Amino acid sequence: MKIKFSKGFIPCAIISILVIIAGIVGFVTKGINFGIDFKPGLIEEVRVAPPVAEITYSGSSNATVDISTVKLDVVISGIGEENNTYTFNFADYTNVKSLADAMNAQVKGLNVKVLNDGFDTTKMFLNSNVSNKLSSDVLYVYPSGTSDITTDDVRNAFASLPSASVKQLGEGADASYQIRIGVSETDKQADILSSINQKLYDAFGKENVAVVKTDFIGSTSSKSNTIKGIIMFVCTMILIWAYAAIRFHWDFALGSIIALLHDTLIMFAFITWSQIEFSTTVLAAVLTIVGYSINATVVILDRIRYNIKYMPEAKNFKDILNAALNSTFTRSVLTTVTTLFAVVSLYVFTTGAIKDFALSMIVGLISGMYSSIFISSGFILLFRRNWKPEYGVHHSLKTVEA
Predict the structure, then answer these.
(1) What is the mean predicted confidence (pLDDT) over 214-235?
(2) What pLDDT is recorded for position 393?
(3) Which residues pair with 55 in a beta bridge?
């Protein structure tokens, strides 16, 4: 069964135009959620919940504690002291009480006070804003999750800072809050960080706030990253145009570039309306889709070129185009679907920037397959609407057949 893809060129072009217009409207009304790579400011990720344990140390040595998802290490060191590392695997100590009992028994001078004895040890973490060196001062161990705190509660804490924005990351036990605030060239990182943390402490109590990570970028660096991103994209388009023009024809090259611009605008429409953070990772997804889409388009263009030479029965360019799309359709679908298997897995099983990368890739892969078949081919047909078969080619082929 031969599919007449050409019948879908105009409807698909109309749909794409509407989606792109929606993206432009979204850009004007909502804007792009630029990550810290492209927008100067400070981003702090925090969790708000009562700590599950308190650790103090009264020994004469230096002591530090490190926590990963599989174990907790207590390192004892110092001049004149025997250096030791005490490792507590969470496979052996599944809850806070059993872990605390083992630490108190094995490490001299260490005192672990349990505040939530049944909590899963694999979900513990330390406040990155506080030194992990142990002393008579309390070091809190925190749970992942946010207790009864909601996104609105965190936003209310920053009501007096209109420039601050709050976004929830993850759900349930993996939930945390990303706080972003813009900076000027005169703002100091330490002052902004202190202001953010103080508002959290005032709202929820200092002992209930734990910093997961903090990122800061100045205006000079963000401008540089933006310019580099634009240059990379423009250079990519120029090189692809040159390649397609040399290997095929100028109208083939123009159709390819239109399809790539289409994919880019569709991805930005999605990024705008979904408000995922536009970081260098998402930019990498956009550039990856540009390369993936041109690869799919080149396969179709190569088949079109072949059909021009070896389809003497074709009366118009539409027949050549439909034949090329039919012969490459299965390949285009299977290539996209197999790639989607890996990308969907990334989306399901990862978090943070990689999850945003995977989500952008999913949209881009579908758009890339769609544009290679309907957008690029549709514009090539538009450019060659007056195409006529070459008599010399047809005559020579008929002579060979005779």
Answers:
(1) 74
(2) 44
(3) 112, 139
Evaluate whether 199 touches 158 at the Cβ level (below 8 Å): yes
**335-340: long-range contacts, CB 8 A cutoff, minimum separation 24:** 335/296, 336/296, 336/365, 336/366, 336/368, 336/369, 339/292, 339/365, 340/365, 340/366
Check: CB of residue 182 under 8 Å from CB of residue 36: no
Report which of 277, 41, 268, 273 is spatially closest to residue 168, judged by C-alpha positions.
277
What are the φ/ψ torsions at residue 185 (nearest 5 degrees)? -65, -25
* Residue 16: its H or E element: helix 9-29
Distances (CA, A) of 63 to 94, 108, 110, 130, 210: 23, 11, 9, 14, 21
For residue 396, name the pLDDT band (cuts at 50, 70, 90): very low
How many Cα atoms sit within 13 Å of 313 on the Cβ side?
Answer: 2
Strand order, beta sheet including 62-67: 84-89, 71-77, 62-67, 133-134
Give the other-Cβ count within 10 Å of 201's Cβ.
14
What average pLDDT is seen over the chain? 83
The reported pTM is: 0.60
User: φ, ψ for residue 130 (rounded to 5)?
Assistant: -125, 145
**Residue 392: pLDDT over 50:** no
Collapsing DSSP states into helix, strand and coil, what is residue 159?
coil
